[in-house]
Amino acid sequence: MALENGEWTGSSSCRFPFWNNRRYPTSGPDGFDKMYLVHFSSEDPQSSMERWAGRVAVVTGASSGIGAAIAAELTKKGLKVVGLARRVERVQELSKSLQSATGKLYAVKCDVSNEPEVLAAFKWVKDNLRGVDVLINNAAVAYDTSLTGGSTEELKKMLDVNVLGLSVCTKQAFQSMKERGVDDGHIIHINSIWGHVPPGEIYAMYCATKHAVTALTEGLRREIIKLKSKIRVTSLSPGLVKTEMPPKEMLESRPALDAEDIADSVLYVLGTPPHVQVGRTFYTQTTASHVIWHWVRPTADLEVVEGV
Ligand SMILES: NC(=O)c1ccc[n+]([C@@H]2O[C@H](COP(=O)([O-])OP(=O)(O)OC[C@H]3O[C@@H](n4cnc5c(N)ncnc54)[C@H](OP(=O)(O)O)[C@@H]3O)[C@@H](O)[C@H]2O)c1
Fold first, then answer.
1. How many Cβ atoms sit within 10 Å of the Cβ of residue 256?
2. Helix axis angle, 166-179 relative to 115-129, nearest 10°?
3. Cβ(70) to ligand 1 under 6 A?
4. What pLDDT digit, counting tens, does each position of 169-182 carry?
5. What would the pLDDT profile of 185-215 be if each residue is shown by its tens digit?
6. In this structure, what DSSP letter does residue 288 have?
7. Among 232, 199, 223, CA closest to 300
8. Which of 45, 51, 62, 240 could form a disulfide with 67 if both were Cys (CB 3.0 to 4.6 A apart)?
9. CA of 174 to the centre of ligand 1 (A)
10. Could you say which DSSP state residue 188 is in?
């Protein structure tokens, strides 16, 4: 890609053939007059997924929706994927459907809000597959619990799964990478648009847990840099996605993404060269009122250019 007269020309090989040799606007259609644009190498990010073949990814919440889609795509890309969930039989079924894939999906029963179960799951990974190279922190629960009269148990459950569960899995994955000298590992948090905008009158605690994920992403990134590690940290923030999580009436009345769209973004993020760190990425359905906005920082020598 090159910047010509304030516009990017897609002259390098892009994973989306449609965009090759086209001009990209430096401002989005919704009035974003500044976007952070990245000058990638000419290497096709899709093909660089090849470097992950044979490596080990743990996906939490692999029994449905986005987690199942991510687990399936990573397995097709040749990774050894460990899918954690309470409904482990669903992950086993998914694994059976992926028997012709170059990778393998292993189903491990685990409630991420139960620390001993998380430790046992990561021990299983260590004993059977040596350790973790990629962690996808996807498991979450969302209850529309009232702050002024709702169930404390539900409020606590959201914090236990979405915040503490994610943090315990992160710690175990980082330690697994560190003890094996893995310096190109990647930790991806499946966040939400609601992790960046203030909550409205619904789902306030769920929004709070996703805001926590935003803070935890940046905190982890900085802690990892301080430890002089090049393990990458990414937060992916979808808008509405067609899964079992959102209420039916919400899905019927608003534009929504497919779970596979988020899985595709995981492949994209993992496939960027090791010196590129995609920090936060927002995804919405095209007709929703946001543009896709990549916020990217260099880990070493990436050229980041601010558009005009
Ligand atoms: N759908 C959306 O509109 C949307 C939008 C933005 C962000 N997200 C985020 O995307 C992620 C995936 O959500 P989804 O839409 O795919 O929802 P989903 O279809 O309801 O899937 C949630 C997954 O989390 C797992 N899970 C829940 N509690 C768990 C626990 N205690 N231990 C282990 N696994 C647990 C579930 O597995 P078990 O029940 O089998 O344990 C299930 O596999 C979440 O982080 C969510 O916040 C979703």
1. 20
2. 30
3. no
4. 999 999 999 999 99
5. 999 999 999 999 887 889 999 999 999 999 9
6. S
7. 232
8. 62
9. 22
10. E
Catalytic: which of 24, 143, 203, 268?
Answer: 203
- Cβ(212) to ligand 1 under 6 A? no
pLDDT one-digit tens code per residue, 37-59 = 333 444 454 458 999 999 999 99
Please report which helix (H) or strand (E) contains residue 278, including its range. strand 276-283
Which residue's CA is the closest to the ligand 1 atom numbered 44?
A: 140
> Is pLDDT at 226 greater than 60 in this prediction?
yes
Active-site residue flag, 203: yes
Dist. CA 140 → ligand 1 center (Å): 4
Q: Atom 40 in ligand 1: which residue has the minimum CA distance?
A: 87
Task: Name the percent of the chain lying above pLDDT 90.
Answer: 70
- Domains detected in the chain: 44-303 (3.40.50.720)
**What are the b/e assignments for 120-148, b being 16+ CB within 10 Å?**
ebbebbbeebebbbbbbbbbbbbeebeee
